[in-house]
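Quarterly update from the structural biology core.
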Amino acid sequence: MGFLHRTVVAVVALAALTPAAVMAQAFTVKDVAGREVQFDKPVDRVILGEGRLLYSVAAIEPDPFSKVVGWRNDLMRNDADSYNAYVAKFTKAKDVPFLGNLTDGTLQTETVVNLKPDAMILTIGDKKAADEVKLEEMLGKIGVKVVYVDFREHILKNTEPSLKVLGQLFGKSERAEEVAAYWRKELARVTDTLKAANPKRPNVFMYRAAGLVECCGTFGPDNFGLMTDLAGGHNIGSDFLPGYTGSINAEQVVATNPDVIVVTGANWSQTPNAKNFVNVGPGADASARASREALAALMKEPAFSGSKAVKNNDVHAIWHQFYTSPYQFVAIQRMAKWFHPELFADLDPDATFKDFHAKFLPIAYQPGYWVSLDRGGK
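Predicted structure, tokenized:
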């Protein structure tokens, strides 16, 4: 009987490795580039072509570094506070190698090959550069699949599909659906109210990456430009720019005389050439006074100093990295309160983001994601 028992166990184990069993583990991902990417087994090793994809991955996979074997260093460079928080929580993150950037030619394909990934996740903004170097074809020859997601260029169209793609890749599809449902619900708290009330929309100038980008970087009809519209404002940049980002000259800002100015800022202390930036983001609440002073200094620029926004102290700064994460609903809630304070008096975006952290993120919430010249706008 002992021999028979061992034989049965061996047969069962062998059956688990049959083609039918392997096929049962196969799945297909449809990425935001419209490509159907087939995998013959669960994904175990992943490269993040942008480090800030961690914002999304961490909401879906409680141990975000369980499968990440390489990533770009943009999170450390552009959001040192989040990087430090994740490294403190997941010490193995310090040993995950950094990769170069595909768009500036610093990505070494040899490094990618040596890491033996199953998948390389890129943002849709990388696709043109990937096509130019035939990256998909090159990596496909060694069994590495390229998958595109997008939390930046077309936020309404691509955020939910991107979350679901990540859910498939990390084996957390149910969790991804929960995050997407939360995203829809919290966004609707603003959009449904605006649809019912139909208030007059203030003209809003979004000053993109102030202190990092010369005046006057801004946003077109997507990303923070679309967030502005969804929050009940009129995004001035959309009148001039066809894409989601770009610049207009100071004279155009003066001519539009914005009712509200919103600056995007972050802790760019690790970013080369950053100066006079407004530090808003995780943990920046402790330095709110310095951030408010930096914001006031920016408003002395000729483009802004004579505007209605400055005269009325309707000037604010918000975390720049909302523009490349699935947390856009938080920024939309905060801007809605700035644009229509009476209409959204009971909305608390700080509580919303704190709740999102408690439900979905593995690190603690640290307030400080926005600041206003007028302390009443926090």
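Residues 1-18 have pLDDT under 50 and may be disordered.
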